[in-house]
Amino acid sequence: MELAIVAAVGAAVLARVRGGSWRGLVALDLAALRLLVVAVAAQLLAGALQRLTSADGFARAGALVSILAVLGFCWRNRRVAGIPLVATGLLVNGLVIVLNGAMPVSAAAAHRAGVSTARVDSGADPRHVMSGPGTRARLLGDTIAVPLPVRPEVVSPGDVLLAAGVGELIYVGMRPRRRRPTAPTADRPAAAAVALRENPPVASPAERRSSPWRKRAASVEPERSARQTTASAPTPRFTDQGSLTRVGPPTRVAGVATLPMHSGRSRAGRSAPATPGHGGSPPPTQ
Description:
- This protein has twelve helices and eight strands.
- It is mainly alpha-helical.
């Protein structure tokens, strides 16, 4: 427990040094918070029943119920940073408790940490037992000495994973969020206009017949409309003397009726006779 508190305080201090804030941690979207309340209530109730009845089963049952409740909370929030480590640590501790009936404590680790094992030896602590030849998964029990200056303790590998998960949760939740770089405000209208001109919007035939769409298309594509109008105009052909003569039936080019033109003079420089019905004076009658 003390190791988790040290990890949490260290992560909070590091996050604050790097510009973090408690607001980010409070804003974490955590689900199933009631399961944490159930875990704490199970521990308190088991401890009270243990003191009243002096039975060993209440403490072990309370520990298992508390672990299951916290595992349910971790599953609901498995995508939050740090929660997977917490869940892994609880699973390891729960496995050792189920195999041995309580958490086994190494006498050598307790001696290195300077922790007294008198309560465990006398049976006053029903949640812990001393490791022995018949202990199962001994390496997963309390075998790591943590000689803290104020309150030393002996922890298990599951406790280390749990403390690491708590530290990661606090640090990631408090650290400042990085914002994506955005273009300057003054350049946004110009960039939007260029993008709209290069990629004009596409509308359905019904929208194209509406007046708002026509106004928008005319404002977006003035240059294209001008080019289409210029390309639609007929191009007259002039003769060497500057005169024009209409011949042949009218034709249509890009929706505009035009008349083919040809020179009013022949190659020899003399005027060509006019064709009746196509302009000019009729031929003289004999």
